[in-house]
Design goal:
Rossmann fold; single chain; 11 strands; elongated; binds 6-O-phosphono-beta-D-fructofuranose; alpha/beta; 11 helices; binds adenosine-5'-diphosphate; 2 domains; 4-stranded parallel β-sheet; 7-stranded mixed β-sheet
Length: about 325
């Protein structure tokens, strides 16, 4: 029997907000309307879906949002969504509102939720949106570029004062269990070390020795970036200080790096991925995750996508350390 064609598309954002999510929402809404679909926006991620916070979306609902950080649909973390009854409720609510397919903009946690909805018969399309850059199936996630540029500028500011006062500064960046933000900012800012969960062995003595080595070479200040997944700056800096005898100024960049107006790259990638989600549905696609691979836009079956593992390029770390003098 031929599958019913999708007529109504739902769209939601889930997990941590990321700059560029608005561009993706706008693209789903406008491309969807151009192609004759009805579009429904769901507020507050899976929580809002289960509370039936569902609104009809028209072209002017997404006016003037490209340049805004965060997500106009708002987002939530909703741990209860791991329960099958809650997932079934979400599917029933989609059916009740005539939603034939759901576009989910979020990270790998949100995709795990989407996979559960797919298993219950709802057609889902995932768009990678997280500042962490840590979704295995894709080389790029919406929000990463803005976050690293915001963090880079903040670290540049810290470097000005660190060099004026001949200080050692350690800056904690986000990334959850991944070190992409730390590594990119470390290399971009000339940091001597980036402590990332993928490679940091919690040998603070070694970190201290490297600082002392740089000081012996004549360096008057030190910049070290730590990814939150490698440990908090408070924990690490204290031990490094003890071993090196050098006082360390600590900064946690926190939500500063998650907010803010998206970069050109994030707006463009999000717009293309959002439009692609609609095109996939128009072509009869089911349960796909959109990704970027070697600068090309591709889509994968959601089960396959969730099995894929990314890796932090180890050579980046080596280059960063060799270039910092
Ligand atoms: P992200 O999508 O950015 O990785 P989270 O890991 O916080 O962010 O996941 C977002 C939401 O997705 C969670 O709050 C929860 O509602 C849902 N989710 C995460 N993991 C699962 C899972 N294994 N099963 C069902 N839903 C999940
Ligand atoms: O996934 C994005 C992210 O900002 C992570 O880098 C960080 O670990 C987490 O979200 C923080 O989450 P919350 O908004 O719940 O503090």
């Amino acid at each position: 029997m031929a599958e019913e064609k999708v007529k109504t598309i739902g769209v939601l954002t889930s997990g941590g907000d990321a700059p560029g999510m608005n561009a993706a929402i706008r693209a789903v809404v406008r491309r969807g309307l151009v192609k004759g679909f009805k579009i429904k926006g769901i507020r507050r991620g899976y929580l809002g879906l289960c509370n039936e916070e569902i609104i009809d979306m028209e072209a002017d609902d997404v006016s003037n949002i490209l340049q805004r950080g965060g997500t106009i649909l708002e987002t939530e973390r909703y741990p209860e969504f791991a329960e099958t009854e809650v997932q079934q409720k979400a599917v029933d609510i989609c059916r009740k509102h005539g939603i034939d397919a759901l576009v989910i903009i979020g990270g790998d946690g949100s995709f795990a939720g989407a996979e559960k909805l797919a298993a219950l018969g709802l057609n889902v399309i995932g768009i990678p949106g997280t500042i962490d850059g840590d979704i295995g199936c894709t080389d790029y996630t919406i929000g990463f570029d803005t976050a690293i540029n915001t963090a880079m500028r903040a670290i540049d500011n810290i470097q000005d004062t660190a060099s004026s006062h001949e200080r050692c500064s350690m800056i904690e960046v986000m990334g959850r269990n991944a070190g992409y933000i730390a590594l990119w900012c470390g290399l971009a800012c000339g940091a001597e070390q980036a402590l990332i969960p993928e490679t940091f062995d919690h040998n603070e003595k070694k970190v201290a020795e490297k600082i002392l080595k740089h000081r012996a070479w004549g360096k008057n200040n030190n910049i070290i970036v730590n990814a939150e997944g490698a440990g908090t700056v408070d924990q690490i800096a204290e031990k490094v200080s003890e071993y090196s005898g050098i006082s360390i100024r600590k900064t946690v960049l926190s939500y500063i790096q998650r907010g803010g107006s998206p970069t050109c790259r994030d707006r463009v990638v999000a717009s293309i991925m959002g439009a692609m989600a609609v095109d996939i549905l128009e072509d009869g696609g089911k349960n796909r995750v959109i990704a970027m691979k070697k600068d090309d836009y591709v889509d994968y079956d959601i089960h396959e996508a969730l099995q894929m593992k990314g890796s932090v390029p180890a050579y980046m770390e080596g280059i960063m350390e060799d270039l910092a003098l």
